[in-house]
Predict the 3D structure of the following.
Amino acid sequence: MKKIIYVLVFITGVVNAQITPEFEVGAKGVFSGNFNINSDESSAVTDFSDTQLLLGLRQKLYNNWRAQFVLGLQFPDANSNLGEVFYNNIFMRIEDEKNIVKVGRTLAQTNLNQFPTLRDDDAIQFTYALNPFSDGVNTQRDQYANVLEYAHIFKQRYILSLHGENFHNSLNPNDFKLNSMGLSFMYKVPFSQKWDRNIIQEIGLSYNNYFTDRPGYSDDFKSSIKNLVFSSTLNLKPDPINFIDFKLQAIQNFGWDEITALTDYFDYTRTQSTSVFGTLRYMKRKQKRPNYQFMLGGGYKSLSNLNMDSDQFIMMANSFYRMGENFDVGLQYRFTSNNGYTKTLFGKNEHRIQLALVYSFDKIFNKQFGDRDQILNLEHSYIK
């Protein structure tokens, strides 16, 4: 009888071990002292926006699929109206080797590239297809949405994605219906082959269609705001120690012809515009880990349909040094210039100097799966 009990206990233990999920914790602290000098006044502030905590559970299903649940908390910009904490990620994902289905809130596909800037919104007016339903008070409304997404992976390098989003509508915040749909196609070298240093690291094209209410139009397609995004990352030096890469992204906003003047942020996102942003980066790696990096970048945005010459220009430079395991110190400089109608919305120009400390942490408990993506890859990282 005792042997039978022991066998039952052993079998029960094995079953419980098999159904215990994999648990992942990711955290990132981003702290900077910002010194702003603009045409009106100067200021100095402490900034810990984009600091966040990410929790994930992954579970093997009864077939070749697996499920993941992610919950993420982020500290938003100080001048936003999102409160003290913003739930930037809360979604469920089901995937197998070639298919991914995602439902919930996460980063929308309005940006195809991660540029090596301190924060991902440091050049948001040039690097994101902007949310035409937002009043522009906070950047999270351009970056995050409630998403319904299906992606198929071909030959481990080609990713075709169909996605629908519910972007926050500042005029109707309780409207949760899908107000955007899109399609994207990416070529991306797997992380495990990153050290081969292929010249083309990734290249992608994305189309986003926002279902806006255009006065005088009843057809959903003609009344929509349409954006086309092209992105690429090139390795300029095939060396596993000295990384030199060039990143570029261009966004064409096929806005409304009738908007020829900017009176508010809604007009800014709905008029025709063309933006280009690129970075050139050198990164030294020792023993397969980042040691330090230097980056120089810039961008230009033209709003050609307005009745006054209006454009925007940005220039950026930064340097980061890894002091210890996942602990970096960095210095970043940014200059922005606005002309025409954009000067009224954003000010004529601004110089910003940021001294930053960044700490990242990622740990997997009860590890069961290979790492297609770590949980911190859900969010921006200036070192990849």
Summary: The radius of gyration is 23 Å. Residues 2-19 form the longest helix (18 residues). The chain has a mean pLDDT of 89.
